[in-house]
Amino acid sequence: MASQSQLLPLELIDKCVGSRIWVIMKDGKEFSGMLVGFDDYVNMVLEDVTEFDYSSGSRDKLSKILLNGNNICMLIPGGEGPGEAAA
Q: Within a domain: residue 44?
């Protein structure tokens, strides 16, 4: 049987540093931006960020944001966020 290479979660996130990532939070907010860095707790710093808040229907631009890893639900590497590719 051929051995398959494994990619651990933190290794995948590390490969995303310097590229765009789509982050979905537990409270329903979503952020799309350039991943600048992260730590062992998956706290993340994003730049050139778009924040999507479905509860208020708003879409805001932010220059930089720090996201708490405890509140992150899902990460989509290379993701532009909802409707961003079409915008």
A: yes
